[in-house]
Design a protein that fits this description.
With 144 residues, the chain is mostly helical. The protein has 2 domains: 1-31; 33-143, Cytochrome c-like domain (Cytochrome Bc1 Complex, Chain D, domain 2, Orthogonal Bundle). Helix content is 58%, strand content 3%. The chain is built from 6 helices and 2 strands. Strands 1-2 form a two-stranded antiparallel sheet. Strand 1 and strand 2 form a beta hairpin. The radius of gyration is 21 Å and the shape is globular. The protein binds heme C. Residues 71, 74, 76-78, 88-90, 95-96, 106-107, 112-113, 116-117, 120-121, 124-125, 137 line the site of heme C. Heme C binds next to helix 4 and helix 5.
Length: 144
């Protein structure tokens, strides 16, 4: 009886170690990306025949939307010039430049990109951005 319990404990310990190793490996793999890889995966998610457009991305970046008075557009915190550092319109905290050309860390972490797309699109646009809009947004910023 005692040895059976011991065996079960060992099994559970081994299994949970293997599981967390797998999870850490997966998270590491899923997060690393380049702007062009991220853009390509959003474009694929947008559906067959979709081509990212820097022009549509520019429009999304600067479009004034009336969902929120304090943050009517992406430019409210990211400024009109994505090569410039911005400032959070509510907290006043510094925001690093959005263009990968001015900030090489941009769009290199898919989890970070997703987190902020979800939060900022919900606040500014009033809904989540579509995969196509995200691909357009990255296409625009990659050219700046
Ligand atoms: C209320 C201020 C605010 C507004 C408005 C805003 N953002 Fe942001 N955004 C931030 C902050 C803060 C960060 C994270 C800090 C940083 O990365 O410098 C961020 C980061 C991001 C990132 C992460 C990019 C990466 O991979 O590093 C994306 C994508 C993004 N914003 C998209 C948008 C879009 C799209 C809009 C407009 C629909 C928008 N943001 C409007 C504050 C804002």
């Amino acid at each position: 009886m005692k040895s059976a319990r011991c065996l079960i404990t060992t099994l559970i310990t081994t299994l949970s170690a293997a599981l967390s190793a797998a999870l850490i490996g997966y998270a590491g793999h899923a997060a690393a990306a380049s702007p062009s890889e991220l853009m390509a995966s959003y474009a694929t998610a947008a559906g067959p025949g979709f081509t990212p457009s820097a022009e549509r991305g520019r429009a999304l970046y600067s479009k004034k939307i009336s969902v929120s008075d304090t943050m009517p557009a992406c430019t409210a915190c990211h400024t009109d010039n994505p090569r410039q550092a911005g400032k959070h319109v509510v907290t006043g905290k510094a925001v690093q430049p959005m263009a990968p050309g001015a900030n090489p860390e941009r769009f290199t972490d898919s989890k970070k990109a997703e987190k902020w797309f979800r939060r900022n699109c919900s606040e500014v646009v009033g809904r989540e951005c579509t995969p196509g809009e995200k691909a357009d947004f990255i296409a625009y910023l990659s050219k700046e």
